[in-house]
Structure formats: C-alpha cells, structure tokens
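Open question from group meeting: does this chain pack into something compact, or does most of it stay loose? Before anyone orders reagents, we agreed to write out a predicted structure and look at it together. Recording both the input and the output here so the notebook holds the full record.
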Amino acid sequence: MEGVEERRPIKKTESKTNCTASARPPRQRERQGKSPRRRREVKRSQRRLDCQEQLLLGCEQRRLPGQHELSEPTESTVETSDSSPKRWDRCRRAHFLHGPYPTTHFGPKACILPNPTSVMHIQDPASQRLTWNKPPVNVLVIRKIRDDSLLEPFKELCRFLVEEKKLMVFVEKKVADDATLTNDEAFSSICKKLCTFREGFDDISHCIDLIICLGGDGTLLYASSLFQGSVPPVMAFHLGSLGFLTPFKFESYRTEVAKVFEGNAAIILRSRLKVKVVKDALVRSEQDGGPDENGLEPHEHSSSEAGKVTQQLQVLNEVVVDRGPSSYLSNVDLYLDGRLITSVQGDGVIVSTPTGSTAYAAAAGASMIHPNVPAIMVTPICPHSLSFRPIVVPAGVELMIMLSPDARNTAWVSFDGRKRQEIKHGDSIKITTSCYPVPSICCHDLVYDWFDSLAQCLHWNVRKKQTRLSEASDSSDTEN
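Structure tokens returned:
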C-alpha cells in the first residue's frame, strides 16, 4: 500500500516539472520514445496491477479463519480494480438464471461437507463431499424385480447390513414376500428383521438415511420417485443392463459401503424437474355432442377441479409429451417464462435434465450434458421442420407446454416413463428446476465416472484408429 501512495506523487511532479532527459531514470527515458497513447496504457496497467496486489494483501490480513466472503475493499480499490466484489455485485443481473439453490441436507442425517475456502454461494462441484451429522441407521435397499440373478446379491447385502453393520433395512413388501426368499430357511431370520413398505401407501421419506440400489438405471429412477422432497444419498451397484447411472461393482460392496459410512465420499448432485399438471378452467364435456372429424370436442362446462394443480412430481430424467395413439402430428405450444417461444409440430417434445440428456433425448439427437451443468434441455421428437434443433435453456426458467388452439388431437405426457396421462385442450404442464436434487455417490469422482459411463455404456467416440504413415511413404510423398 505504501508503494501505491509513493508512486503517484512522483508521477504528478514529473508531469509538472521540466527535467532534462539526462536527469530522468533509464525507465522513463525508454517511455519518452513511446507514443502518448502507449504511455497512458502502460500507466493504467501498472496502476491496475498495484491495486490488485493491494486488494489481495488487504484481504489476507483482514480475513478470519473460516470466513467465506472477501472483506469490503477500500474506495480507491473499488474504482480501479476490475475484479472487485463490490463492482461485480453492481453488474450482476437482476434475474438469477442458474436455478434455485439446491438443498445440502439429504434425508435426516446426511449433508454436504462444508467447504470453508468456498467463496461462491454454490460450492464447486469438485469439492462436493458427503458427510454424516449422525451415523446412518436406516437403509433402503431397492432391488430390480423380475430378475432372479439378483436374489443372491440381495440376500448377501441384507445379511451384511443387518448382522455386521446392525442397521435397519427397508425393502418393498413385494420384494420381501417373494416366494424364493420366504422359502429360504437360511435367510428366514434376516427376512423377519426387514422393514417393509408399499409404494403409494407408506411414507418413508423422513426415516431413510441411505439408499442402496441393486440393478440398472431404472432402480435409481424408481428411488427418485419415492422421495418427492429431500432425497437421501444414493449408492447404485451395476447389476442391470445398461448401468449408466450405477458406477459401483458389487464384487467390492463391503469395502465401498464401509467407505460411504465413514463419510467424505464424492457425490454428484443430479438436478430434477419440478412438474405441475394444471387442468383447464373450462373442461369440455363428452356428453354434449361428440368430437368432430378432427377429434376436437367443441362443448365446454365448468368443473370443480378446473384450474387446479392436479399433479406435482419430481422428475429425474425427462418429461415426454407425444401424440399418443393418434395418427396426426402433435401440435403443442412451448412457453418460456410466460412468453410463447415456438410451436412443436411432430411426434412430440422432450424436456430433460442433464442426467436425462443421455437417455431418450440422446436418441432424439440432443447433446449429452454433464449432470453438474445447471440447464434444461428441450428436444423435439421427429419435428416436421428441417431447422428445429434441440436447445438448452437456463435452469432458472419456467417452461409451459400446452396444446395449440388448432391442434387436431390431444397429447399424452409421461414422467420418467411412468404415470402416463392425456393432456386436453386448455391443460398445461409447467416445468422448472427443482431444489431437491438426487445426491448420487461417485465411485471415483464426478468427472471420471461420467466419461467412463460414456465410454463403457454408450461407446462414445469409439472407432478404428487411423494408422500412421510409414517413413518411406512420407519421403515419397514429399519428393513427388
């Protein structure tokens, strides 16, 4: 700071005093040969470097241990430093486009390990580590059904969790009632200690500390559907067909589960979509006249359910709106934050998360996006247009899909391939990013696991290698 104060008076006296060239220092004699514009640029760059050093030194002296934000700089520093936090705050956009701040607590006992060196509001994805406020007690085990090859891994894992780890294990009632398990006398003692639940009847969202999936990607999607709020950490073992979302191998389950219980495991926050289905304020009657030749129902009447949110879901992969059994093109309007963006004429449209970009959206021609990128993807399905390309929008916007007024037929919507229902004229589907992501535990780290899945499951960029030219052919080509 003293160097900045001493340097400025010297420059002022030099500009006012008529000194000879021989009395000036060598550095100033070099500047004399430069143009005035060049000298001004050199002075500004030197002043900016000095102020940045002053800001860093001042912050290091004033920062306390564990302090998250930089201390407020002096007035002179704010005016001259381009990286000043105060100037950055003034230039920040009024509308935050990166989506809602995700919750960092997952279930009753799990959360992200706080990073005291983090300056940003959202942690660096590379620093996302799992920690436990209290030791986990209740573990939900989800097994792929109608697959007898998973019975032995399922029994082995349950025996390990109950007898060695002394944990409460929750399973689905239809899994526990499997005749193969009930008739196994060696497993009967473990089977009696299992806690069962039924989907849609029993709420287990507030008592599960950890989820372990045995199967493919469908088991992870099913686990996400069970928790419409905060989701406990998910550990997925690859025992299914594709396994893009299941990085762990079951052969080393004892070591991997023990590491997770110790904490400090790498996790990736897979964002979800919050979807609302709103019925029209005027519902058309099927009794007052039938539909016309184009499938439109002209008559309307009021309904007690009109204008209400009839369904609200958390979706991990995608929301698919398609034409259903109709032979006509699907014709739906797409709104972004209340403004009409375009009309989709084709087989339908896919609204997906970055996690879902490697699923149905990839088959429809969309780009594959890393799950940590805050975004929503909009991908048309066989559009009747040569210029309709998939787009990516910020995670903070709200999308709304409605049937176009001149649509010849209704549309159908599904959520992660489930709960398919019909969408009629006037109904709307509102989609935005949820603040309840799925914390998926990584086997190595969030970057390596994703690229490894691309290579192993989708064979991304796999081709026969081009052979190098021999030295003889190189010399002959050069001569010719």
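Observations to bring back to the group:
Confidence is low (pLDDT under 50) at residues 1-23, 55-96, 283-289, 292-304.
The longest strand covers residues 339-346.
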